[in-house]
Specification:
The protein is an alpha/beta fold. Helix content is 35%, strand content 13%. Bound molecules: NADP nicotinamide-adenine-dinucleotide phosphate.
Length: 315
């Protein structure tokens, strides 16, 4: 039997598994099989989003696996995210209802505000101007947050959180929040170890999820460094007899940071799960930590003129 993935606890008492499967860029035609394989392997945590355009196909896998008795809904932890074109308060509950319909579930375990930036409302998920830059909406993220709080009140979301928020934006939000976020989902790997933002969040009882933990090799632009090919990582991989990806996933688990590597390849979904039979020494954790170079793979360039673009702050 597959090992049960250890969890951390949110301040509201809900458990959050330390390892989940990412689904960004998982094509609709491949994600159903990927999620089914993951459930068989032992994954119970799935990271989804409306904008990934594949929630229906993720839902198909959940439905099949629940139907065949492989897993129960209450054993699953499903995250989804509110997209930026639905930040007006009255659009938030309908957006979550659409996600729930696509996923074929009655409630979401964790609903995140995907970005602190509101876009022009409408069907277009990436409304852009003639220069290719995103057209902002009139909302501030506090308005969208009030909508997320409503989702909790209606029993549609168990927990709510944020993603891609910098430390100033978090404090802005905490000034008005009636329900505090349980989690901030951010890019995190040894090239961007995010220690300051993690400490800042934890001091406020906000857990952190590490996205793009493998350095998002399919997002890399030609001049970006390839984390999975880092020579230091290769040396550690040989030392521990674990793949570079397994070292990167275990690095977050050692830190107590939930981590959501994405794959649609069955053998990788399997090997990325085999991270509970070894640990990385303190000294080697420090070496991995020392690789930090503040390199961001997910820059979302088309939004860098938005007034709430989060990445101009140090952390
Ligand atoms: N909140 C946000 O704004 C945000 C932003 C980015 C990501 N995320 C979430 O975080 C998840 C993970 O991030 P990510 O997708 O950017 O990147 P990632 O997990 O760092 O990397 C995924 C890429 O690595 C490949 N891969 C997976 N396992 C591997 C292995 N063992 N060896 C070598 N290559 C491997 C995958 O290929 P195959 O699939 O072809 O196997 C895929 O191309 C996303 O899917 C999404 O759920 C959230």
């Amino acid at each position: 039997m597959a090992p049960k993935v250890p969890s951390i606890k949110f301040y509201n008492g809900y458990e959050y598994p330390l390892l989940g499967l990412g689904t960004w860029k998982s094509q609709p035609g491949e994600v159903t099989e990927a999620v089914k394989a993951a459930i068989d392997i032992g994954y119970r945590h799935f990271d989804c989003a409306h904008v990934y355009g594949n929630e229906k196909e993720v839902g198909e896998a959940l439905k099949q696996k629940i139907k065949e008795g492989a897993v129960k809904r209450e054993e699953l932890f499903i995250t989804s995210k509110l997209w930026c074109n639905s930040h007006k308060k009255e659009l938030v509950v309908p957006a979550l209802k659409k996600t729930l319909e696509n996923l074929g579930i009655e409630y979401i375990d964790l609903y995140l505000m995907h970005w602190p930036m509101g876009f022009q409302a409408g069907d277009n998920v990436f409304p852009v101007d003639a220069k290719g830059k995103v057209i902002p909406g009139e909302t501030y993220f506090t308005e969208a947050w009030a909508g997320l709080e409503e989702c909790v009140g209606l029993g549609l979301a168990r927990s709510i959180g944020i993603s891609n928020f910098n430390h100033k934006q978090i404090d802005e939000l905490l000034k008005v929040a009636k329900i505090n976020p349980v989690n901030n989902q951010i890019e995190c790997h040894p090239y961007l170890n995010q220690q300051r933002l993690i400490d800042f969040c934890l001091e406020r009882n906000i857990t952190v999820t590490a996205y793009s933990p493998l350095g998002s090799p399919d997002s890399i632009k030609s001049d970006d460094p390839v984390l999975l090919e880092d020579p230091v990582l290769k040396t550690l991989s040989e030392k521990y007899k674990k793949s570079p990806a397994q070292i990167l996933i275990r690095y977050q688990i050692e830190r107590g940071i939930p981590v959501i590597p994405k794959s649609v390849t069955k053998s990788r979904i399997q090997s990325n799960f085999e991270v509970f039979d070894f640990s990385i020494s303190k000294e080697d954790m420090a070496i991995l930590h020392g690789l930090n170079r503040n390199t961001r793979m997910v820059k979302f360039d088309m939004t860098d003129t938005h007034k709430d673009y989060p990445f101009y702050e140090d952390y």
